[in-house]
Amino acid sequence: MIVVMKRGASAKQLAEVIAKIEADGYAAHLADGDDNTLVGIVGEGRGAFQQAEYEALPGVARVARVTVPYQLASRQMHPRDSIIPLNGKPMGGDNVLVIAGPCSVESRENLLEIAHAIKEAGATALRGGAYKPRTSPYSFQGHGEQALKWLAEAREQTGLPIVTEIMDANLVPLVCDYADVLQVGARNMQNFTLLTAVGQSQHPVLLKRGMSSTIEDLLMAAEYVLAQGNAQVMVCERGIRTFEKHTRNTFDLNAIAVLKALTHLPVIADPSHALGLREYVPQVSLGAVAAGADGLIVEVHSAPDEAWSDGRQSLTFEQFAAMMASVKQVAQAIGRDA
Ligand code: PEP
Ligand code: MN
User: From ligand 2's centre to the CA of 102, what distance in Å?
Assistant: First the structure.
């Protein structure tokens, strides 16, 4: 439920509404509407919800039902875009931000080379996996904490914030010591223990859509993080499994447009994992930006064919720089900046 306060309701009236919500066993979630303050009523509460009691409180215009289960993630409860600052730029505002880097952190030298190249091309943040979710237990699993140290060194040299995947709830404190953004990967989108743990950190979270998850599943996963009090969640479309085999997954462009309507959270597109083929990554990136994505996350490597993971989908430095120029043009065409 949402309590819509009257225009010009006083701070005391708002405080009374919040006090009643808490006394009834719910949590209150404040948001600005176009003209009025909205107070979301979240949780189970004690006993049946007494709508008339809330409508009778001074300063209350009306009480509305939230018609979706992802309450905190929904635009109904939070009409304005949420902004998550990344390297001083707003993710979710007028800018389109680009996160780039290797799939896996392979070595210190290789990571630093890639970090400098993507910075030069205009990226806002550096991605790189230290803990890798691999289909085969015999594939490279990531350098772990050593990779986190190299990522931190790359941040020191370039000023780029670090986005890296976390797979284990027990590692949240360690990864938070090094990373700026915690990535929850497609395979862990419904790892509820992990979602709760990253929700208890105050680090921004980049939450990827599971490969067989619906848009609603994704928003419910985001809700887990938000429900812990961590408001800094970005949701990411990274391709879903379909019958199509030519590409690794199928990029769901629909999801970008639909997510922008359903949620206030920043929406990111990952064309690399959606396609699995580098030659199509620039075009699909442009499509995602045109459809309203707030950011892109793209794999880039100094020698893609020699990459330890996901080389086939990683862009060369030249391809990435050329893509960045086109991203800027498309962003500008729809009144944004990149
Ligand atoms: C990755 O970002 O390298 C990755 C493993 O992504 P996803 O979880 O989308 O497969
Ligand atoms: Mn990858």
Answer: 8
